[in-house]
Amino acid sequence: MVSHEEDHRGDAGRGDPARHRLLVHLVRRPRHPGERAHAGLLRFENAFPLADLWLGLACLFALVTLRRRQPAAQFWLVCAGAAGLYLFGMDFLYDVQHGIFTSGAGGAIEAGIVAVTLVFSVTVLRFAWTRRDALIAGYQT
Length: 141
Prior knowledge:
This protein is 77% helix and 0% strand. It has helices at residues 4-9, 17-28, 33-45, 49-67, 72-97, 105-130, 132-137.
């Protein structure tokens, strides 16, 4: 009788270990050269959901505290701007090092996302800095 483990492995799990490694290599091998870069980009992007969540929460808290004219708005604006700059830096360097920006339409879209992140972050930090006294005092900005 075949055990539960053997049943799930099929023929690739039996016999010569070298044959098994070859089959695993062939099955997992990218079908075309761009697929490997795409898989690497997905691994990179999937590594940062917590950082993206932090940026989103900081933006949300900044918006809520701004609308309520609370002094904490200054803090949350700085958090949002700094988190955005950090994410911009990571994305930009990765994309330059791996030639993402020159990879066709997907690269152009990524360049746009990176540019928007930079402009947004600098704008938020500039807003927070030039209005810091009013924000901390809770006055209308």
